[in-house]
Amino acid sequence: MRTPIAYYLLLSGILFALGTIGVLTRKNALLIFMSVELQLNAVNLTLVAFARLHNDLTGQVLAFFSMVVAAAEVVVGLGIIVAIYRRRRTVDVDDARELRW
Amino acid sequence: MPLDNVIFWVFAPIAVASAIGMLTMKNAVHAALFLIVNFFCIAVFYLLLDAPFLFAVQIVVYAGAIMVLFLFVIMLLGVDQGVDLKERLVGQRSLAILLGLAFIAEIFLALRAGIGFATKAPEGFEVLNEGGNTQAVAKVLFRDYFFPFEVTSILLLVAAIAAMVLAARKAPAVTQAELDARADGQPADGEVDS
Question: Quick one: how far is CA B79 from the chain centroid?
């Protein structure tokens, strides 16, 4: 175990930033959703890295919970996207803006 | 150069490159495949960080279940939709990239001021993982976090019901008399001509 923990944290920071860029720039709701998954994974990597740094398994358990919640979130989010597609025949987020003030 | 260092420096560029590939692909299927590559790389990092249980869960749950669900929905909605690259907000893309770079710089500075780039992982994790990482995680999960674990089951149940409610097509309303008529073998209106 010779790789410094900070490298893992920096890598997960880079992945999180890339996910943020994806959420902010993509227009397809599915691709925005995939970028959110990338962000969730980056945070999970941070949790596991800190678990290793502090010699504490709680971080791994928290990452496990985060995966379970992510699975539930994917199910509901994809259900919403399918419902939007049925109604308007597109998943472009710029077209679904009735709720915008 | 120790082996885990080599593995890290092999897989870290792949992880970043596949994330960038996911962001730049126009086709949603290609983006999903790049995301699967990224998930596998993160699974390898879990293995390097002494979390083999999460390594298996990452591959089974993320690269398996969640990405299959994504690909299924992409196929269901059609992949041939044109991508509208026009920016509705002026400078949205460049501002987003600037924000991402600022975030990376912030993480870099915070790490340098915080734990530093030389801090190696401490010894003694093998003691925690004695008897297997899965058993050790199970001990923490079922002793210290048993109530959150139970609450998770309710969350999953609610999510399953919500997905059914969201995705279900409303069936046309049928009265009991119509059902009885169907059961009696009487032809419906459309079938009289044939």
Answer: 20
